[in-house]
Design a protein that fits this description.
It is a single chain. The chain has three domains: 160 residues, Alpha/Beta hydrolase fold, catalytic domain (Rossmann fold); 54 residues, Arc Repressor Mutant, subunit A (Orthogonal Bundle); 77 residues. 44% of the residues lie in helices and 17% in strands. It is built from nine helices and ten strands. The strands form three sheets. Strands 1-2-4-3-7-8 form a six-stranded mixed beta sheet, sandwiched between helices. Helix 8 packs antiparallel against helix 9. The longest helix is centred in the C-terminal third of the chain and has 35 residues. The chain starts with 12 loop residues before the first strand and ends in a 5-residue tail after the last helix.
Amino acid sequence: MSQIRANTVLPANRRPVTLHTADGLELVGELALPNDVAPVATIVMLHPLPTHGGMMDSHLLRKAANRLPALAHYAVLRFNTRGTSSDQGQSEGAFDNGESERLDVAAALDLVEFEDLPAPWLVGWSFGTDLALRYGCDPSVQGAVLISPPLRFSSSDDLQRWAESSGGFFWAPAKSRVYAVLPQLVERGYATSREVVQTGRPNKQLYRVTKAGRAALQIWLEEPPAFEPERAPILLKLYFGELLEPEVLLAHVRKVRAEATAVKLRLEASGPSESSFAELTVRQGLEWARAMIRWSAAAELELAERLQEQTPAPV
């Protein structure tokens, strides 16, 4: 292959596409597919802030569409969000400060499904990262790549939702705990922080890991893990079951079964992961959820029988 330069365009099957939003807008886009081979994954590109020149033809997005289909056999979808114009054309509607743009992201994922494209990933740049964080946490999405995230429109709740959709079933610390630990990381030299001034909302702290922080993480990863039996509040409540009415315990067990069922359905809907390591964690989560469902169903039957035994017979 010849040397790739700034303006290199590699062979691909490129065609214009129109995205249709739920509020009736038509968005301009392009789909680039590898030649003569099925794509192995799909990249949905989300461009920078259109009020500052961001568009589907921004150079990183354009270069990805020009090269990734040939180099990696990826399908690449890029488009102009509402009200955005570029050499490809102008999308209908008007810029909405990242609010109605949720329908634009949904329209892109709808097109991916309609075209039967595999394993979609979101790649956001600047403003596009906010769209990915706020609106891209979909069961069909494999993950997101964030380039220069300003976190201007997104919030910690959006990050929490992504965390819960991936490893949240085995490690989901409270946000209050995360906020308490971050300054401690700065004190130890594991991270740096700077204040970001915002208009119309409180200023925020932006944290970045340091080389010392990465080294500390590597040391922790290589340490043998401690075995920590699961903290299950339901078991503690059952242990003191003599102090509760059977119908109260029965409601507790039913709640556990419903929550375990929700975890099972979410993990099953997530689809296979491209990482064999992540797949192992998902498999453990599924086994845990199925075991909890079986256990709670049996416990529910036993508690229901006890409740029936205590119910006075009709006179």
